[in-house]
Design brief:
mainly beta; 10 strands; single chain; 2 helices
Length: 135
C-alpha cells in the first residue's frame, strides 16, 4: 500500500458532500478462479472523514473538522473505505491555527496536528460553484 496522507478529496452528489484524507489506495486480490463482486473490482481508498462545522462569513470559507468516534481508550478518527471513482475533487485545507501558531508544524505534519481546517473553495472554480450550489 502507498500512503497519500496529505491528499484530500470531496465527494459531490451524495446526500451531502464529504471531505476525507486519503491514507491508502488499494485493490483487493483473490485466488485464481475466484471473482470479486463488482463493487470490489475497482480501486478503493481508505480515508479519514471530516465533518462540516460552519461557514466563516468573514473569509467566505467553510470550516471542517475531523470526525471522531468513541472507542476504548478515548476518541479516535472515523474512517471509511470508498470506491476511488467516487472522488470528484482534490481540495486544499488550511489549518485553523487559533491564537498561536505551533512553530513545529510543517506542510507534512499540519494535517496531523490540527483538527479544524478551512476548505479553500477559491482554489478551483468548479469546486467553488459546486459548494455554492450544494451547501
Amino acid at each position: 500500500m502507498h500512503s497519500f496522507a496529505l491528499n484530500l478529496f470531496l465527494f459531490i452528489g451524495l446526500p451531502e458532500s464529504v471531505v476525507g484524507q486519503v491514507h491508502a489506495v488499494f485493490r483487493p486480490q483473490v485466488q485464481a478462479g475466484t471473482e470479486l463482486p463488482p463493487f470490489l473490482s475497482t480501486p478503493l481508498i481508505y480515508v479519514d472523514l471530516f465533518d462540516w462545522v460552519a461557514k466563516d462569513d468573514d473569509l467566505d470559507m467553510w470550516i471542517v473538522q475531523r470526525h471522531m468516534v468513541s472507542a476504548p481508550g478515548g476518541l479516535q478518527r472515523a474512517g471509511a473505505i470508498v470506491p476511488l471513482v467516487n472522488v470528484t475533487f482534490a481540495v486544499e485545507l488550511i489549518p485553523v491555527y487559533g491564537e498561536k501558531i505551533d512553530c513545529t508544524v510543517n506542510e507534512k505534519t499540519s494535517q496531523e496536528v490540527y483538527s479544524r481546517f478551512y476548505l479553500n473553495s477559491f482554489a478551483d472554480k468548479e469546486l467553488f460553484e459546486s459548494l455554492r450550489a450544494e451547501l
